[in-house]
Specification:
Layout lengths: L5 E8 L8 H6 L5 H9 L3 E4 L6 E4 L3 E3 L3 E5 L4 E5 L2 E6 L5 H14 L5 E13 L4 H10 L4 H4 L3 E3 L3 E4 L4 E8 L6 E11 L9 H26 L5
Antiparallel strand pairs: 1-7, 1-8, 2-3, 4-5, 5-6, 6-7, 8-12, 9-10, 10-11, 11-12
Helix pairs in contact: 3-6
Amino acid sequence: MDMVDTSEIVLLGSFNPMIFHPEWFERYKILPLHDTQWAKRHRPEEVALKDATGTILNNPIIYVTHTITQLNFQSLAFRVLNNSFYCETKDRGSFNTVKEAVIKTFSILEHTPINAVGINFVGALEVKKKADSVLKFIFMKNDLASIFGDNYNIGGSIIIKEDTRIISCHIGSSLTKDNIIDYLINFHSDIEKDESISANKAVDIITNSYDASLEYTTRILQSLLGEYTS
């Protein structure tokens, strides 16, 4: 079974939200053609309010301003602020599209200052018993070192420190369903100051670690929760 529902890449740095619009992605062939053409057909329309007091945007799947851009394509979504860039998909078949879109974007915008990279995997797993009972049993075990190694701490999260990144595993019972366990696994890499003046290091990190991070996530979830999932 697929244990990962959502993939997100987050970059911290300095960005110009106005750059990012469907025509830009189409011009540089960053996204699948069906995404950019679909977005063109779903332009937001300015609709007058019935009381004539103003207007609203109808179907604002494309929202581009100087301070924030939000683009909702069929396969993935972007959210860009002046200090952060997010690319996300909730479609398991589009995980590679997210990776390639970010790599292509910042191979073109190579002079963008980027000082941190986050690769996130998010999901919800249905378990055979109450989620609270499963989690209590898991975290009472003494064999977590066999999964995470010796250098971890537990405090609402499991933190694994590696030489070049920090992995945070947030696992908890759902607030809405008794038999659902929610999780977020974050792979965070800070970029040294002398390398953060451009996007090159960030592109290298994503290129070399995205697939391995997904494999790691799947292995961790299978090791921790595989025997309890429905």
